[in-house]
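A quick word before the example. In earlier lectures we treated sequence and structure as two separate objects. From today on, think of them as two lines of the same record. Here is NAD(P)-binding domain-containing protein written that way.
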Amino acid sequence: MHIILTGATGTVGSAVLHYCLASPKVTQLSILSRRPFSLPSGDHLDIQKANIIIHEDYSTYPDELSMKLKGADGCIWAQGISQTQVKKDEYVRITHDYPLAAAKSFSSLSNTGKFNFIYVSGEGADPTENSKLLFGRIKGLTESELLSLPSTSTWEALRVFNVRPGYVDPPNPDRPRPLVLRLLVDYALAPAFRQFLPSQVTPVKVLAKVLVDLATSDGNALQGGPGIEGGGRTLRNVAIRSLGEA
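And the structure line, produced from the sequence above:
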């Protein structure tokens, strides 16, 4: 299957990139990136199926780009940023506006009549938008609006899944982060989660497997179970661990 990936240099995206390059399920990988980067190397990685496409504005998808992506079957939207790193307007644009614009544009790419759009959200996302945290409100709003798209004939080909990891472990050591944030997370919060709240930790390789499995699936809603919500289209961390470690 032909899969689109964003956020390939981030913690989640880099793990998904490795998994896609190693997985026979993915026969073609289109990577949208704002800047060039080097693909990972390894005997088990098939970099020949990957194509890095430089795309700076994630709010628009011109015809030239759509032609390069034509025939894609799904997208793993792993692009994102912490609310602590940007101002509110920028956070809303990256977290909400960009994935909505992409899902709408990508909905007509597949030759099968359906397109899987996998949105990497996070535990704490609140579709009711009552959360006191900006993260919770905006992620929740994005989840809700993505799930509503297929009810409109224009985007009825979409098969949306919202995936909510907890603390993703281990973090990408190459990801640029402010020193204070890195010290707080890596040396205070991360050890505490591992020791006292292991159920809230999401092993990054497990997460990558689940994301790719969803992107290459038939797009049907998942059967109910612990951590599976939203009519089988929202996966909380307990479901990610269960599916990925099975």
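Notice the following. The longest strand covers residues 28-33. We will return to this example when we discuss secondary structure assignment.
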